Amino acid sequence: MYNNRGTKVEEDDYGKVIDDAIESLRWARLHYREPLTSEALHTLGAKLGYLAEAMISKDGGDEARAQQALGLAQGRSLREQDSVRRMWEEMWWSH
Questions:
Q1: Whole-angstrom Cα distance, residue 17 to residue 73?
Q2: Does 31 score more than 80 pLDDT?
Q3: CA-based angle 58:63:69, to the nearest 5?
């Protein structure tokens, strides 16, 4: 496992989002008559849209936007991503 972005760690992140999407679809198939299924599928559609945006941004060379979209696909809010980024920056500069 590598630490540099654009390597194995990032591939694992993309794979986890895809695996979660597959599991969500399996759940929806078994529970399609339940009221919450449509909401779950709507959420899944948004996550897949963010995943696609992350891939497009990465291919276009916009790493910051790709990371932000990947975080949203993983279910992390922009506020949470920003606080984690600031925490890492503070830890980095404190040494």
A1: 7
A2: yes
A3: 75
